[in-house]
Amino acid sequence: MDSVLSEDPVALKILIAGGFGVGKTTLVGSISEIRPLRTEEVLSDRGIGIDDLDGVESKTTTTVAMDFGRITIRDGLVVYLFGTPGQERFWFMWDELSYGALGAVVIADTRRLTDCFPSVDYFEQRGTPFVVAVNCFDGADQHSVEDVRIALDLDDDVPVMLCDVRRRTSAKEVMIALVEHSLRTLTSAN
Amino acid sequence: MSDRPQWFDEEAGPVVRPYALIRGRTRSSGDAFDLVATVRAIGDPPDDLGPEQRHILRAAQSPISLADLAVELDLPVGVVRVLLGDMRDHGLISVTSPTAGGARSNERILKEVINGLRAL
């Protein structure tokens, strides 16, 4: 508890995960001021044919942009949102991102639910508290929350909710559900 | 925004490539700094500091996170880590990484966050 009393600002990390194009950037933008954060990825064989390395054979990293938002709760208490890179070649970044994270929002699109399997697996394995937010795209079938829970084989205590990531109130509800879930996970562990 | 790309000034790319600022290094004592580690300026700046280091010292007069600093400087996180590693080694800044449990295992802070989010 001492850390709270010191003058060090408190920074909390929340990760926004899900498949490519599922609405991660939109969610971060709906609830926070989104800022472009440049980071590096290690070039691997996957980059061959995509990244031209002629003449720079020793180059091992390249720069990518990551969704980054901040919500100031009060002076000295800030929640940072990080959109996890959507493609497999960025997986190595997840360990760093999820270290010490308060929790994660996994955004699911019912038209391609399998896209969020890797995220769900990852957070389950790491024991990071997470919620599943089903983004209700226009024209998408309104699946019931229970259907999604069964399809993703989620534990009963993992919150699943419908949302519209474009709407601030909806994005807010998702964030609140996540922090409440993290709090429950914490108190049940103590 | 016009449809045709027009690159002027900053959009045309940096005059100095980011990694030239750190003399081509990609590793330093700052590797382990967390994205939300708190950076603050300490000690007196020497006269021979580069513009980026000066910028960092100005920005870190009050505590600032590594991620915010990277946005502020418009530099990749890895470059900022190398700069910060050097500056810490020279006693110009302090860097406090959040502990693994830390704030997220503090009930009072989580409740404060929930209330803060509701009030948004």
Automatic annotation (TrEMBL), chain A:
* Record has Nucleotide-binding as a keyword: yes
Keywords associated with the record: ATP-binding, GTP-binding, Hydrolase, Nucleotide-binding
GO terms for molecular function, please?
ATP binding; GTP binding; hydrolase activity
Is GTP-binding one of the keywords?
Answer: yes
> Pfam families from the entry?
ATP_bind_1
**Superkingdom of this protein's organism:** Bacteria
Q: Which family does it belong to?
A: Belongs to the GPN-loop GTPase family.
Q: What is this protein called?
A: ATP-binding protein
Q: Which organism is it from?
A: Nonomuraea terrae
UniProtKB/TrEMBL annotation, chain B:
Instruction: Fetch the InterPro entries from UniProt.
Output: DUF742
Superkingdom of origin: Bacteria
Q: What is this protein called?
A: DUF742 domain-containing protein
**Pfam families hit by this protein:** DUF742 (PF05331)
